[in-house]
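Contributing new records

If you add data, match the layout below exactly. Sequence lines come first and carry their own label; structure lines follow with theirs. Keep one chain per record. Anything else will be rejected by the validation script.
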Amino acid sequence: MHRRIIVPSALAAGLLLAIPASAADFTPGAPGIGDSYYPASGNGGYDVSHYDLRLKYQPATDLLEGTATLVATTKQNLSRFNLDLGLKVSEVRVNGRVAKFTTAGDHELVVTPASPLEKNKSVSIVVRYAGKPSEVKIGGWSAWARTPDGGVAAQEPDSAVWWFPSNDHPLDKATFDVSVLVPDGHQAISNGVLQSQSSKLGWTRFNWRSNKPQATYLATLAVGKFDITTDRTANGLPVLNAYSKDLGDNAGAARASIERTTEVAEWLESVFGPYPFNSLGGYVPNVTSGFALETQTRPFYSPRQFANGANVSVVVHELAHQWYGDSVSVADWKDIWINEGFARYSQWLWSEKEGEGTAQELADYVYQTRAAEDPFWTVKPGDPGPDDQFHAAVYDRGALALQALRNEIGDERFFAVLKGWPQQYAYGNAKVSDFVKYAEKLSGKPLAGLFDTWLYQPVKPAAPAAAKAGLKAPAAAPAARAAQGSAKAAAAKPAQPKSWKKIAETNTIHENDRH
């Protein structure tokens, strides 16, 4: 056999090629993803593409046992990484091998794999865990609600840490399979499509699949005893609604609202374009909270949303989020306006469609009934701060900004923007500045000043969001055009649009116990 003689310099080069990166080249992933409001949320160093959650829940004791498998890709050479979880962990495996783990802070699970992980490699992470979610308090609050017959995970901006390990920030979206074992007679509700259901030895397993990218806070779980209705849309999408059997006096109003989900979604498609997910629905568990949440494909509604009768406006709001907030998610929680301003404006558009007050009339009413010294005007919808993230100004002043845009660029371009945006950023993330640039591109107009006035200045703007002279007023707003002719009288005593009361009743949509 011929042996080649290698000179020292060539040998050194060969060794550099043969030896993998040294330990010094591997560093820990960041314990936060970099959010400006919630620096501890999410983690750095990897990106999750899929969650497979296999759970068992006992309603009588609130005991949740889980095995979560995460499929991820490394974004750096990782010596260790964090997951977000509040329950007690018994074992972690990375790429099939047992990994060391410890905890830090309120919800950081710190994992050290048996071997460092190279950048841009696929990795599987299996976490076995258990605990009682209702006993987990982070920052003094909980996203898990106990009900008389089970429990519910639904909250914003955090809920995942109470029931599964994750990279808990909207920047890292993934698909989900959620399999839940519950005692016979109970149901488990989650996102997406119910793939299968089977019973054995007193337990029933429900297998759910959400096949489009989903933020972790939009994943939901509800276990209890529900009345369930099912249907299909004209396009064949499955519709599933669930109602706790003990909603009392709110039961009828809840059904009268949520059973209109398909109708509302079809109308929203005419405004925002094709519905982006694989199923529709909503659920109302017997919780004591008052908020609603856009949990992907299957919004959560508190019974109190229907305490004063049916309210389709809240259904409009949460379904609008499927485009604005779910398909296109925030890049940072300070960008909350691109969720809430649009969901509130969709309620104004529904009012316009139903003949209960045009968007212009609603804009005029909001503007005229808020005095200049009202603290409402000091909140900046484009960056409200974590304490005011769900302030009324983010919703109503946020919607005023959209009416101002509509009047500036006209209906044709305005509705082209509303429909084009969810396609432009489908299943991704975006910032307020991205929307401003997109609106400028489609309209051909400079709009930075307009958005600065309505989203960032902590004062009441000098002029309301009313149509400019010479611009075509909205075709669907003859009453608004007439009202503009008597602006002085209207300012003295603004007429309350017929839809206002029902819209105002939804102002608790995202109130929670956190703030």
